[in-house]
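Supplementary Methods S3. Complex input for the nicotinamide-adenine-dinucleotide-bound model.
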Amino acid sequence: MKSFTDRVAAITGAGSGMGRSLAIQLARECCHLALADRNATSLAETARLAQAEAPQIVGAPLRVTTRVLDVADRAAMFDWAAETAAQHDRVNLVFNNAGVALSSTIEGMDYADLEWIVGINFWGVVHGTKAFLPYLKASGAGHIVNTSSVFGLFAQPGMSGYNATKYAVRGFTEALRQELDLMKCGVSATCVHPGGIHTGIAQSSRIASNMVGFMIESEQQGKDDFEKFFITTPDEAARVILDGVRKNRRRVLIGRDARAADWLARTLPAAYQALVVMQTRRMHRIAHKRARAAEAAGRRA
Ligand SMILES: NC(=O)c1ccc[n+]([C@@H]2O[C@H](COP(=O)([O-])OP(=O)(O)OC[C@H]3O[C@@H](n4cnc5c(N)ncnc54)[C@H](O)[C@@H]3O)[C@@H](O)[C@H]2O)c1
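Predicted complex, serialized as structure tokens:
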């Protein structure tokens, strides 16, 4: 899809981070928007920002609709897709972007936490793809953009739930793209693998208590350290994603960290895992020392 002007894009997780940046950048190109998020307040703010960024064209105002929904809810997703097609007359793009993070050991993991992340990160992408596909085909020019992660390229201790969902999104989307190519139906698909992006995902992540003392010293330190790896802005990430859609890329890697991780996992598919263990031990030793030093300083004060 070379141009987004006068197209209609549906975006999940539009209330924050990359979803919000995608909405704003598409609005600047006069792409009509159907925005969804589970958070009504942040969703309304994205709609306001997108409207404010849209070029003022007399007689053709930008249409922005919003829907509060949980992407894990299959019926709600199908309802939203039908509503979007009715409100906008057509749908050309769906960005299955909503996602959450979970940090836990496998041994100590609650099934409820695993079901929560699989429901959003994997089933949310499946529902969004299946619900919107008939409308994308009907439009004659459609594109599905599914967000995986750098964690869909390589695994990390404490991230098994997240890893499982993001590898699943990758497999699902790569197969989807091949099926769409065979069908020659005017719809394409791209799998997105962001590295660390400066968004709200770390602070809203679930960190299980079993991680404390194993890889981190406290929940907050775990979240803060996670954020230290966020080297790309959401605006830059959205720019790279939209460029990938324009060029009809099968996969889009965002950031030098994602490119390095991809190279490492392909070059050393078994050995990289030992390197990750070494690096994780080193980082935990540093966090432990920092926590002990802070405790000692607190006692002295
Ligand atoms: N930030 C990163 O470093 C990074 C790296 C790789 C992949 N990703 C992926 O990028 C995507 C976007 O994340 P982000 O970094 O912009 O995070 P973010 O937390 O800033 O935004 C995620 C949005 O999704 C919404 N959301 C969460 N659960 C939902 C649900 N059940 N239904 C509807 N909306 C829901 C949240 O309310 C939020 O507005 C996610 O799929 C994430 O896994 C992020």
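Residues 168 and 199 are 22 Å apart (CA to CA). The chain has one domain: 8-267.
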